[in-house]
Amino acid sequence: NVDDEILPFQDRLDSFLDRPFFDPDAFEDEDSTLLGKFARLVKSDYELAETLYVGIFFVVLLLGTQEVLRMQLYGDAYVPFVSKGAGSGKLF
C-alpha cells in the first residue's frame, strides 16, 4: 500500500523537523567551547543571543550571495574572495 510507504517517511520528516537545531540545555555552564559560551549567552540574555545569531546568519548569506554573483559575472576569471576579480573590480 502506498500510504504505508509514505507514512514512515512522514514520521521521520516530522521527527527531524521537531528536533531543536540548538539546545542550550545540553551544555554545562562551565563549558568553554564556542557553542558552550553561546549556550550560556542564550540562557542569560536570549535577545542578545538571538540578535547575534541572526546578524551572523545574514552576513554569511550576504557573503555567499555576493560571491555567487561575482562567480556568475566573471566566469572563468573569477578569483574567490578577492575584490578585484577580473579587471577593475567594479561590479558594473
SSE blueprint and pairings:
Blueprint: H1 2-18, H2 34-44, H3 46-74
Helix pairs in contact: 2-3
Relative helix content: 55-70%
Mean pLDDT: 84
User: Looking at the chains present, what oligomeric state does this protein adopt?
Assistant: single chain
Q: Which parts are unreliable, with pLDDT below 50 for 5 consecutive residues or more?
A: none
Question: What is the number of strand segments?
Answer: 0
State the distance separating the first and last CA atoms: 57 Å
CA-atom Rg in angstroms: 21 Å
Count, helices: 3
Largest sheet: none
Order of helices and strands: HHH
Bulk shape? flat
Q: Which structural category fits the helices and strands?
A: mainly alpha
How big a fraction of the residues is strand? under 5%
Keywords:
mainly alpha; 62% helix; 3 helices; flat; 92 residues
Can you describe what's shown?
This protein has 92 residues and is mainly α. 62% of the residues lie in helices and 0% in strands. It contains 3 helices and no strands. It has helices spanning 2-18, 34-44, 46-74. The protein is flat, with a radius of gyration of 21 Å. The N and C termini lie far apart (57 Å). The relative contact order is 0.06. The mean pLDDT is 84.
Task: Give a quick summary of the entry.
With 92 residues, this protein is mostly helical.
